[in-house]
Structure formats: C-alpha cells, structure tokens
Specification:
There is one protein chain. With about 500 residues, the protein is of the alpha/beta class. It folds into 3 domains: about 220 residues, Rossmann fold (3-Layer(aba) Sandwich); about 80 residues, Luciferase, domain 3 (Roll), CATH 2.30.38; about 90 residues, ANL, C-terminal domain (GMP Synthetase, Chain A, domain 3, 2-Layer Sandwich), CATH 3.30.300. It is about 30% helix and about 30% strand. It has 15 helices and 27 strands. The strands form 7 sheets. Strands 17, 18, 19, 20, 21 and 22 form a 6-stranded antiparallel beta sheet that branches. Strands 4-3-5-7-6 form a 5-stranded mixed beta sheet, with helices on both faces. α1 crosses α2. The longest helix has 17 residues. The chain is globular, with a radius of gyration of 23 Å. It starts with a helix and ends with a helix.
Length: about 500
C-alpha cells in the first residue's frame, strides 16, 4: 500500500526542477531540493533513534521547515502531530504529553516558553541548518499505537470536556481522500496551490498532499496573511494561484476587504470552500468577481475529511436565498442517515449524517468511551462515524446541512438549532456574519444571543427590525433575545467563529 511520503519521492523523480513550495519568507524549493532537505532531516532523526511507529510533534510556524518536518517524519514511518504555533504553550504541552510524543521538532522562537510548560524533555539537539531544535522526550520508547493501518498523523480538535482530543488518521484514510480529489478535480504540474489552512487543520491535507502528488507549486500562507484579506488578495495575484481552498469566512473577508479589482486573479480556476455554511449573497458576489473559476462546496469533519461535495452553478439565480447543499457522497465513502438506526437517504428524509468508508478515522487517542460514542459497527462489521451534523435530503438527492446536534438547545419546551438562527440572519443584506450562542441566566432560563458584523457599522439595524426580518424565516420561539454588534466576530486558528470567545463576552 502506498504511503504519504512516497508522494514526494514520485514527484521529485518526475518534476525535479519544478517549484515545490514557496514559503512566507520567500524561500522557494524545487522538488529535488525539498526531497534532499527531507533526506537530511531523516538522517538526523534516525541517528537519534527515531524510527517506525514513533510519534513526533511539530511546533513550527508555517514555513518550508514545517513541511520538511512533516514529510521527514512520515519518511521514517513515524506519525506527525502538528500543533498550533500561536496557541498557549500549556495547550501544546498537553497535546504532546497526551500523545506521548517521542520527539518534538520546534522552532527557535517557540523553544523557551515551551520548555517551561513541558517538563518531559530529556535532550535538546540544535538543527542549525533548519533553525529548529529536536527535543527528545521521556516518551521515546512509548509503545506503538494499535490501529488498523500505519498511523500517518494525529489532528487535535476541541473536545467537549475542554481538553483537545486526538483524531487518529492512517495513511489509507488520507490517501483515499487525496486520490478522490485528483479523480474529481484534476490538477497537474502547471497548477499553483494556495496553502492557507494551518497544518493542524484538516483542510491542509488537500493543499499539501494533493498539491505534491500533482507536481504543482504550493504557496504557503502564514497566519499573518490569513488574517489580512488585503494581503491575501494581493498574494493570490502575485503568485498566480490557480487552486484555492479556504473557509467561507475567509473568502467573505477577501470579497469585502481584499479589493479584488486591484489584483489579477485570472489564474484562479478551482475554488473550494468548506468548514461552515457559505451564505448565498456573498458567494454570488465572489463568483461574479471570479467568473472564470469553478466553485465547489466540500463537507466533512476531521474524523473523515471530505465526504460530500456539491458544484456551485456558474450563475446563481438572483432569487436564490437558501445556501447550497453539501451535496452527494464522494466515491470513496458511503453516507447515510441515523435516527436510532441506519436509514437509507431518500428525498424528504432527515437525520444525523453518518459515514463509512476508507477515509473514516481509527478513533480518538486515549478516549475509548468517546470513540465508542462516535464510531460503531453495523451487523456486517462496517465501521460508521456519527458526525453529529443534522441534514435533510432534498428532491435532487443532495444532503442539505441543517445544523449540529450539539448546537441544539431547548427553550420553553421548543428545540432551537442555533445554526438555523445564523442562517436566517445571514440573509439580511446588512449582515456580513452572524454567530448565535445560548447561555443560562440567573433564573436558569436559556438566553439566545446573536452576535453580528455588518456591511456599514455606522448604520446598524435595530433589534426590532432584525426580529421582524427573522420572522420571515423563523418561528417566533426561535427569535434571539439579544442582538450585539462587533466589528468582526472572533475566529479560531482555523478561521471559524470562536463561540467560546463569544460566550465570554456575553453578560447574563
């Protein structure tokens, strides 16, 4: 069976002189140079006893060095655990302790604060040519993890307990997704991929591994660029990006603040979006500004990567208000409905989306109870993942996202899906973005807050107007209790709305 690291070796043989990666510091490496750099780091890793079955943490800002660290870890048949370079050192320390990392590759700038938070380092080896340090840990001889296939990487996602949980992803999981992408959206050595998502976010798997397997050039964008839509817009033009993958939030920011008309984006031919609902109005406007590009709505949680997809029509009807479906199943998986039993999807049915197939993760690290809650086997021994996402099946047989089980609250006996409130508010012409949360007040009553950013902060719609607008789409019991306006909604490191930050702002 093929392994992820073989992708680089194959492309380096086919396209040695092609540009492989360009990093935020302007460093450009050809495929031959990238392969040579990985070979050199592999020698260091092996010389310090790191080999098959180890877990190696990656704590490096997005750069050529972080790509080399990832590919080298895979090449020695270890698993990489990427962590957020901008997260608190205590969180990163928890992750590397939880996964019992045998070693950590870390950049110079992050070394001192991390050392204070992580007392499990046994040896520190400077890697001067890469401006990195290799930290050997007391978990160096931790036992191999038992998974159905060789572990490729772990991605830590926010857990309901407040502690991150590690998702176990095998080579087969990742490669089934990569191969499907190349089959469905053909790309080649003439393409230029953007790599916007941080490497601890599953969107990055497409950018890095589909890009490498295509022999394409991959342009790495760091957090500075991804937080600055004007800079990002200019870089898309400067690097002649042809394949772009981002969250709707980021694409909306580019549309609103990227001054697209200033830059030459004519090379764009594929635009993927995923991670959240893309309201139709800003999507329509962005398509009008990038008419030559084909747009695709991709859906899938970290535990499965992308499992459904839907092409966006070249022309979006002016009277369309509903967001586009998340679409039909990808060919490497099966998607069905769950309502206390497995249900074959048919038009008119609704339920929780469940997924089976090659891309379904091996479970959560050190969390057997949580794994048992989310993964189950049917009578034929097929493993299914319960996404927690609620969907409906439309007349065309497409899945339509309708919210999250864990974002459903009960108020006055009624069930309220907070995502439905956000979708209604996003239809308002003055609303750029909406985030709904619920909290209990002193009387133990559920209070729903709607946080909004607007197209014109100087002319804010009032609460009565917004309630009247919402009544066009929502029953009265779903109306928010309070509307609050922010210049921009807070975001997580993966460019999604930070609901925990919104809850801290609320005054109940």
């Amino acid at each position: 069976m093929q392994r992820l690291h073989e992708i680089l070796a194959n492309s380096a043989e086919r396209f040695p002189a092609n540009s492989a990666i360009t990093d935020p510091n302007g460093l450009e490496l050809t495929y031959a140079e990238l392969a040579d750099s990985c070979t050199n780091l592999c020698i260091h890793l092996k010389n310090h006893g790191l080999a098959k079955g180890r877990r190696i943490g990656i704590l490096i800002p997005k750069s050529a060095e972080s790509v080399i660290a990832i590919l080298s870890t895979l090449s020695i048949e270890s698993a990489y655990i990427p962590s957020d370079a901008e997260a608190p050192a205590s969180r990163n320390a928890f992750i590397f302790e939880d996964c019992q990392a045998s070693a950590i590759l870390i950049s110079d700038a992050l070394l001192a604060p991390f050392q204070e938070a992580f007392p499990h380092i046994t040896k520190q080896i400077p890697l001067e040519e890469l401006s990195l340090h290799l930290l050997l840990c007391e978990y160096e001889n931790a036992p191999d993890l038992t998974v159905p296939d060789d572990l490729a990487y772990m991605l830590y996602t926010s857990g309901s307990t407040g502690k991150p949980k590690g998702v176990l992803i095998t080579h087969q999981n990742a490669l089934s997704f990569v191969d499907w992408c190349l089959e469905c959206f053909p790309t080649n050595e003439t393409d230029v991929f953007s790599s916007i998502a941080p490497f601890h976010f599953d969107l990055s798997i497409y950018d890095l591994f589909v890009g490498l397997k295509s022999g394409a050039s991959i342009v790495l964008f760091d957090q500075k660029a991804s937080k600055n839509p004007l800079l990002l817009s200019s870089l898309i033009g400067e690097h002649k990006i042809s394949v772009l993958y981002a969250t709707p939030t980021l694409l909306r920011l580019i549309r609103s603040y990227g001054r697209i008309e200033r830059y030459d984006h004519s090379a764009l031919r594929i635009v993927h979006f995923a991670g959240e609902v893309f309201p139709v109005a800003p999507l329509r406007e962005l398509k009008e500004q990038w008419p030559q590009a084909k747009f695709f709505n991709l859906y899938g949680p970290t535990e499965t990567n992308v499992v459904t997809w839907h092409p966006i029509p070249d022309q979006i009807a002016p009277d369309q208000l509903e967001p586009f479906p998340i679409g039909k199943s990808c060919t490497h998986v099966q998607c069905k409905l769950w309502e206390d039993e497995i249900i074959e999807p048919h038009p008119g049915l609704s339920g929780e989306l469940i997924v089976a197939g090659l891309s379904v993760a091996a479970g959560y690290l050190n969390l057997p109870d949580r794994t048992a809650q989310s993964f189950f086997q049917d009578s034929e021994g097929q493993t299914w993942y319960k996404t927690g996402d609620l969907v409906q099946v439309n007349e065309a047989g497409d899945f339509v996202y309708s919210g999250r089980r864990d974002r459903m609250v009960k108020r006055r006996g009624y069930r309220i899906e907070l995502g439905e409130i956000e979708a209604a508010l996003s239809r308002h012409s003055a609303i750029v973005e909406a985030g709904a949360i619920s909290l209990l007040n002193a009387s133990e009553e559920v209070v729903v807050y709607a946080y909004l950013s607007t197209t014109n902060p100087k002319e804010l719609p009032n609460g009565q107007e917004l309630k009247a607008f919402c009544l066009n789409y929502l029953p009265i019991y779903m109306l928010p209790d309070k509307f609050l306006f922010l210049e921009a909604l807070p975001k997580t490191s993966t460019h999604k709305i930070d609901y925990q930050a919104l809850k801290k702002m609320a005054d109940v």
